């Protein structure tokens, strides 16, 4: 059942190119993005005044990425909240707010309760869900399925990657309908989107190099992930992937926030993983790399091919192919998934079933 792979997690990581393709292909038609299941006319899309994204865990992390993508591309204000917070905070949901609930299982108790809360307040809820016919899929006004197929490993990989794709498609569609991007810009983005599966495949095939590197950190006490903008969102997920399956303490920080406290935790040899995929932020993040290196950190950077400035500052560099800036998460997460996986394997942890965790969290 693991198809020759040692763990479901590795198998599912390798299923990502296909899962990503399956998620975008049915929605690309004649150079346009068609999401019939959205149930929204172009007029409805133009009337959206705010998007409220609600989810838990990794799905929340895709929501954080979604905020940057929707705001950057479609210029729609986005708020992202954890479902367990949203449901109890008497949220303000004005007319014109589209609520998006993201969930792999479609059964997460807090996410389902958040959906019900939004519906009770008369708002339209769009579910981005993987499990067909699940509670969130049934109760949402509209469902956009991620076609990742069954995910067994507790640590999500392919469903996460498909959630990102669903968010890109939505943001591109909204941007186009609202006149924020031109026909040719959309065309260019679609061309880049279609390249993602092969790029992911290539990054997965780099696994031996990541494993070798991971083996150097099996006894680490603390590992940090830093980045700005979308790179911060990637950091959140990279950190969760590592800590949930390896039990090594890890934190994700917005790179500029580090000096407001956390930098005191950096010691000689502490591993800091820096995400540097957003060109307009290169210089700012590189200065944070220099800051932590001055305090003794060892820096692994994930950056775009050709960004040689990072090579001068960091100790170890993993390159990802150049893509549209809004899609960088889909590529940069691959080495981080592999890193978490191999640290967990190297430490002899139960990779697919980490202690204390359940695949579907149906209790609050
Ligand atoms: C982490 C992970 C969890 C889930 C979270 C939400 O690898 O899998 O953080 O993302 O429990 O689950 P779903 O998406 O089923 O609502």
UniProtKB/TrEMBL annotation:
Protein name (Swiss-Prot/TrEMBL): Glutamine--fructose-6-phosphate aminotransferase [isomerizing]
Main location as per UniProt: cytoplasm
Keywords: Aminotransferase, Cytoplasm, Glutamine amidotransferase, Repeat, Transferase
Functional description taken from the UniProt entry: Catalyzes the first step in hexosamine metabolism, converting fructose-6P into glucosamine-6P using glutamine as a nitrogen source.
Record-listed E.C. numbers: 2.6.1.16
Active-site residues, as the UniProt record annotates them: 359 (for fru-6p isomerization activity)
Domain SIS: residue ranges: 41-180, 213-354
Subunit-structure text: Homodimer.
Enzyme class: transferase
Location within or outside the cell: Cytoplasm
Record GO terms (molecular function): glutamine-fructose-6-phosphate transaminase (isomerizing) activity
Portion of the full-length sequence here: 245 to 608 of 608
Catalyses which reaction(s): D-fructose 6-phosphate + L-glutamine = D-glucosamine 6-phosphate + L-glutamate
Domain of life: Bacteria
